[in-house]
Specification:
The chain has 182 residues and is an alpha+beta fold. It has helices at residues 25-36, 53-63, 113-128, 143-151; strands at residues 5-8, 14-19, 69-76, 79-88, 97-104, 133-139, 155-166, 169-179. It has one domain (5-131, 147-152): Gcn5-related N-acetyltransferase (GNAT) (Aminopeptidase), CATH 3.40.630.30. Bound molecules: coenzyme A.
Length: 182
């Protein structure tokens, strides 16, 4: 299992970042259901993330035996406050390229958690010796996330219209990417 990391936050609390474990599948789904109602910047809304605890448990177990996928939880005093992941392809031609996702509970925004998670994932990618590119898609009006990604070195690579349809309106996303090593 990839090592955990502790980070001191702006509010003086300690953030623990580590790969998710199958036994926290239920807590992860509770977290996801909460954040689904806190932001319109995700690919799902309240009640739309329909995995069962058993699905989630299997999903985590599978990820943890691969070298080019990671699913990370961030905790403050045992409460899940953020999640992030990178998923790469399975085939020889796609196994080096991963898609990144990240979310932080609203109550904990602007404490440096997003940045700490991004640094952890980027470091993991370098250490994997497999991952050579991290890609992501972000709503073009999600300034907070775009600023975070730019701060971490991601560059804008494209713009795709009508990727999301939320409350009767289409949204364009930016494709952003970070090359890892040579
Ligand atoms: C985007 C998100 C992950 C940022 O997490 P966070 O923990 O609040 O971010 P941090 O405190 O680590 O901030 C890191 C950098 O991000 C940028 N940033 C974060 N929030 C911002 C805001 N409200 N406005 C502008 N820039 C912001 C800044 O560049 C910041 O650096 P700084 O502190 O030096 O100014 C969080 O707002 C979130 O979960 N949003 C909802 C889900 C989401 O949008 N996910 C991304 C989908 S693509």
């Amino acid at each position: 299992m990839y090592p955990s990391k502790s980070v001191e936050l702006r509010n003086g609390k300690t953030l623990l970042i580590r790969p998710a474990i199958p036994d926290e599948a239920k807590a992860i789904l509770e977290y996801v259901n909460q954040i689904a109602g806190e932001s319109d910047n995700l690919t799902f809304g309240p009640g739309e993330f329909d995995k069962t605890v058993d699905d989630e448990r299997k999903f985590i177990s599978k990820i943890n035996i691969t070298q080019n996928n990671i699913f990370v939880v961030a905790l403050i005093e045992n409460e899940i406050v953020a999640l992030a992941d990178i998923h790469c392809g399975n085939r020889p031609r796609t196994k080096h390229a991963g898609n990144l996702g990240i979310s932080v509970k609203k109550k904990y925004w602007r404490l440096g958690i997003g940045e700490a998670l991004m640094k952890y994932l980027i470091e993991w990618a370098y250490n994997s010796n497999i991952v050579k590119k991290i890609n992501l898609e972000v709503r073009e009006d999600n300034t907070a996330a775009i600023n975070l990604y730019k701060k971490m070195g991601f560059i804008e690579e494209g713009r795709i219209s009508r990727v999301l349809y939320i409350k009767g309106k289409f949204y364009t996303t930016l494709s952003m990417g970070l090359e890892i090593g040579d």
